[in-house]
Amino acid sequence: MRVGIGYDIHRLAGGRPFLLGGVVIQAPHGPVGHSDGDVLLHAIIDALLGAAGLGDIGRHFPPGDPQWRDVASARLLERTLKLVHQGQFEPYNVDVTIVLERPKLAPYMATMTAALAKVMGLPVERVNLKAKTNEGLDALGQGRAVAAHAVVLLREASGRAD
User: Fold this and answer.
1) Burial track 115-150 (b if 16+ CB lie within 10 A, e otherwise)
2) Considering the entire predicted model, what is its pTM?
3) 2-156, what's its fold?
């Protein structure tokens, strides 16, 4: 078993789509980023890469590389999962905390959980998402940013000796 921790933060701006876990969130603003700015997926990608000993998201998908401009973060996650599998590991579970003042995420949590479970090839009960506010503190608390913290547990891929 191997554990990885991931984190991502993006400021929010008007006129941008807001994606979390590949799910469109209805909001007047969205994350500013080189890709689609999906902090939930970016934090998970960093956690996966860390657990597998493969560096970080910037190493594999550098923001200065035009091929990653406006790319769907779900594609980045799929590529990351291939790297993890090549290393003879597979995700066992994922736990994520999203930090966002508004909009409230409760109406989206089941959809995000199901979408993430499908992409990661996990049973829904091994995907846990939580949403927290930052109690009005700093850019997160003032509604000017969104962040996510992720923890992933990897295990040796099925078929390998224990």
Assistant:
1) bbbebbebeeeebebebeebeeeeebeebebbbbbb
2) 0.95
3) 60s Ribosomal Protein L30; Chain: A; (3.30.1330)
